[in-house]
Amino acid sequence: DEFQRYKRKKVISLDLQRLLDSEKPEQLFSEDQESVINRAIARPGGKVRYIQVQKIRYVWDVPGKAFVRVGSLEDSNTCYQIHQKFRDGLTRRQRDLRKLVCGPNAIEIEIRPIWKLLFKEILNPFYVFQAFTLTLWLAQGYIEYSIAIIILSIISIGLTVYDLRQQSVKLHNLVEEHNKVQVKVWTKPEGGHQSESCHLVPGDVLLLEGQKLSLPCDAILLDGSCVVNEGMLTGESVPVTKTPLPQADNVQPWKKHSLEDHRRHVLFCGTEVIQTRPSGKGPARAVVLQTGFNTAKGDLVRSILYPKPMNFRLYKEAFLFIVGLVIIGLIGLVYAAAVFGSRGRPVSDTVAMALLLLTVAVPPAIPAALTTGIVYAQRRLKKKKIFCISPQRINICGQINMVCFDKVRPLNFHFLPLHSFSSGPLPWGPLCQAMATCHSLLFLEGRIQGDPMDLKMFEGTGWEMQETCSEEKETGETEAFTIVKPGATASQAPSEGMSILHQFPFSSSLLRMSVVTKELGKDTHGLYMKGAPETVASFCHPKTVPSSFQEELKSFTAQGFRVIALAHKVLSLDAEDSLRDLDRDEVESGLTLLGLLVMENRLKGETRPVLEELRDARIRTVMVTGDNLETAVTVGRNSGMIPLGDRVILVEAADPEGPQPASVTWQVMEDMQSCKEKNQDPCISIDGSSTSFHFAMNGKTFQVLQKYFSPLLPKILVNGTVFARMSPGQKSNWWEFLLLLLLKSCGLVLPPLQALKMAHAGISLSEQEASVASPFTSQTPNIQCVPELIREGRASLVSSFAVFKYLTIYGLTQFIGTALLYWQLQIFGNYQYLIQDVCITLVVCLTMSLTEAYPKLAPYRPPGRLLSPSLLLSVFLNVCFTLVVQIFAFLFVRQQPWYSPIRSHRGCPLGNEPFLLGNGTGNATEPEDTVLSYEDTSLWPLVTIYCIIVAFVFSKGKPFRKPIYTNYIFSTFLCIQLGLSLFLFFADIEAIYKGLMLLCTPTIWRIYILIMLLVKFGVSYFVEDAILQNHRLWLWIKALLRFRSSSKYRKLQRQLQRDPSWPPLNQRDFAEDRKGEAYTNPVFENSEGD
């Protein structure tokens, strides 16, 4: 059960004696003594104990005396151990033992029975409270109202159960098809054979023989290579090449050996294998890493089944708010018991009426009020091609105060070559060969696919790519290669083409990639490298690197161009040399620099307006990218992320060298763009005339700061705008640090998978309708979705608060009226309640949130707290207004000359007959009516029409929603409700008086009631619009009271503004020691207590 918290779990025991027979566990695990399964088998006895929590199995580690997760290979295995232990597969007995302990390789989601869903929904506290309320209403004889509520509840429960059932069926169908995939497994000593995927266990060897396959498990590639589509996990449907795990003989665990690139060797469950390439040893092989719910897909499904609770105060405060209403209801219960008890009423009537007043104070629809705005906002987002798998995060988007863009791609068009590229075909030579071969492009489904930059570079050569072909070796083994040949538009070449024999894939930590090639028809081999210019240059002979290299590089990056370097080396390979055994560090040395490839980053048309809108809304924007620092800064300036005239301070940190400790330097970067526009020399503004500044740094600097200058890092992040050359791991660390130390609500666009899940509102730009990588997916490949999502989040949040306030005031208004009538042992009539609850309140709740978001973002956020001063004051003042007016009407009607405490006649005088004193008065022996009275007739319109008034007052439009008249359905219903209420109040129709149990009153008294309502409307509207929703007034009050935000982010901001030595300029600071104690600014530290 996803709502259950586990303090105790049933321990299940497995008896392995029959399976083991006479064989000892040590024999089965002779090559894998440190296996979790081996450590879990109790000796003697051969038993394994386990528990299961949220679909994950944990076995009892006998030596370690703790429950440990089972269902995956141990991370402690080295690359060499994985190859040695598992390359030949498992025996049948080993497989049976692992399957019994780990469980089947299946992600099984049962379709919930309708009866179970129905039973669970009925036991919801909301419906339990409603059932309690209906029991009281039926006991009092309010049949019609109770039947209406029962019908509405049945419809609501039915729709909810149907929706939950459909979700259960959809999720079941999503995972069921992967539980019975036919795979080819290699076992000892049988060899390869077909098997259902549900029988796979960690350690099995899969044979991948070219057919398309949806992976049923996580697996480590051992031999060959694969091309997979990881769109289900990442949200980007770009083919990804997987390379085999190296057979490095070292003591490091395989993940640490591969650092952040270990994912390059892992085939994830749920991803689609598009293409496989065999190695010289046969078909591609992979060892099963994880099975069932331990896999990447299983982890995703578990996150859907057991979502982590979001730490958003709205829902916590909603509970506290309801508790407050319950307390008011309990006070009313005591009041009702005292009144009815003191008048000598039967105990049963006293208890029933007391409980009835309790239910009036707490409208059972309040919890649902927080979801109405979300439902409509999700529907509007879907029309704008923004899809959401976590609707509760829509309200959180209304509180976003920072947006982080990962990669430059969402801000720019795809890369375009410089004009010199298009002046003619690129001549034959090493540069042309490098551009034609050094890439990760693939020929799939009749077209070339891959990274847009690689694709544009390859198109610039005019060459063509052909299907992968195989070459027979003397040993009889086959191996696949990619062939590239000159096309019709390419320059003449003295070669038929080139084959790409081996690829060292691009690594975010190494910032380079390289390929080993061979000319067709020749025995000459070559290595071509492509990557970050400063990285590639470090692998080249110094003689081949021009002295003006750095200057030229800086001139290109300062203009915002994407620059990569190309290098070449002739390789001497013998026929017997194995390409897999090549040492990358050895072959990637002594290269010749070929030149720089410069790509133009053209800004998308919508980028600058979107960033300007976010800046005008005081929403901070940050760029975290893997690109060159100068390129990222220039893109930031051109896009408006860094406004014209603002200073950019480059922060560079260095690790300790010898006796010199770690250091950090601060240098103002030249604004090449602004000086270029003015035809001036590069200029630097350091006189302090520009009060705004931005820090820029690379991933290495961030890592050093985190290690040696940790006290400085929060201060830098307050104004950090550009973070370049950041690896995926550094991005995740950056995000975690920022989230924990500085900010409350942030949005994130296209970050790494881990950061997307950490963010409050991650957005993935994907053509798919939903990406599991993030809560939101936009099919529009630009950043226009960011302000759209924030606008809808704000509108949803404001709508939720408005409906919440409305229901609260409606309940308390009805509570006050009922309590006043209790004073004379009366209550509102059945149909009177029916009109208030169903015809007005229910319709308002369903239509108020239909108002769309305002098209322009306001420079401030809506209140994010139900217990905020403005909301509490709104509820308190409106309740006070209605309390005063209702008490005045209740007392004033008794002073009228025509008033009588007992009435039996419901009609009005006919024609011109005067309204006589005592008209229709019953005799003294007539039993008192529980509804008929002038007090009831006076209070009912005050309560009913006031519900319409507050619905209008709380439907404020600008700055977060469109005006109320744009919500045609709500406006129409509001007018109908007001007209109908006035008609019922002023129409002298006998049937209406009888049906509603009202008494006829003089016209002048009805006019008095109308004047009271107009006064209530005027006061409520003025207080709500001119005072409570007046942002400038609240800012003035905050300034008068010297109120300051208590968040750490705002504290740091204020302290740094008071620090005259911040930011440091053109200086170098050193860490005090190697232990991470960093230099600190004494002026800043002394201001901590301010």
UniProtKB/TrEMBL annotation:
Parts of the chain that traverse the membrane: 122-139, 145-164, 318-340, 352-377, 803-825, 831-850, 871-893, 938-955, 967-987, 1007-1028
Chief location of this protein within or outside the cell: membrane
Gene Ontology annotations for the cellular component aspect, listed alphabetically: membrane
Pfam families in the cross-refs: Cation_ATPase (PF13246), Cation_ATPase_N (PF00690), E1-E2_ATPase (PF00122)
Subcellular location(s) of the protein: Membrane
Stretches assigned to the Cation-transporting P-type ATPase N-terminal domain: 78-132
Keywords linked to the UniProt accession: ATP-binding, Magnesium, Membrane, Metal-binding, Nucleotide-binding, Translocase, Transmembrane, Transmembrane helix
Name of protein: Cation-transporting P-type ATPase N-terminal domain-containing protein
